[in-house]
Amino acid sequence: MSGYRVAVVGAGAVGEEMVKVLRQRNFPASELYVMARSARKQVIDGREFDVMPTSEDAFDEIDIAFFAGTEGEKGASQLYGWEAVRRGAVVIDNGDDYRMDPRVPLVVPEVNPEALDSHQGLISNPNCSTIQMVVALAPLHRRARMRRVVVSTYQSVSGTGSAAIRELESQIRADALGEEMEIKEYPYQIHCNVIPQISKLRDEFPGYYGEEIKMIKETRKIFGCPDLAVTATCVRVPVMRAHSEAVNVEFEEPITAEEARSILASSPGIEVQDDPENSVYPMPLFAAHTDAVYVGRIRQDPSRPNTLDMWVVSDNIRKGAALNAVQIAECMIERGLVSKK
Known about the structure:
seven-stranded mixed sheet, alpha/beta, Rossmann fold
């Protein structure tokens, strides 16, 4: 057999993107199945798939299962994730159900691929906003070791899902026509607005919403630094696709902006766009539908020693979900951690 039998569980925005990425990267799949709640035909990336209903038995012949998930939703991975592992599949889960589970590696291949070596069959994709930040921070952390991270995010509506994209589009049309706007996905209209709430408040960190807590805890786990000082403010903005982040990071040793720029420019998965005099910096408009993590506005914080500011932008559906998951699988294959049935 020439390749792996692969399943994508979930046929929404992330599931479709996973199929696209697998095909675009010529992933070594002998078979590619798409599973969802119910059977149907669905065209993905120009190919018609016979979408299968998800069931335990469906994983008997699967080598690698990508669970697409949607941020904040519970479902397929809770129902079928560990059962798929029991039946011999390696599961890569984009949902948040098992990210902090001590059995489960939380992996960004550019940052901590060694965490895969101790996997027990299920690997978690981090949160989209965490992924792009740690890709940008990891090369600098290796050079000077981080002491504190302060991040403010500007997150697109695609992070909520397809319904939120449609709602923003409908609100734009309604505003242009002077009609009443439909508001379902967020507490307020998102068109012409920013909303400093993503997910719900949690008792664990009083005053912090769930997305902010994910960034704190996931960053610590990925870097293996349980005491790393991290704080986050996560904001939803009226952008269709790609998240932006303002990151302030303090290091244990001095590191100049020039050195950071050079380190980042030579690091995998990163593209430096940093010529502020000529208005060159990352923007979601141009990051959408691309693979890189873009970093710019790299500068030294004059208020605090050993501290840099930077602006980080990446497509939350590509690198923040589908691409990272596929890269995990590719990395596992390279390390000899996946077998064929």
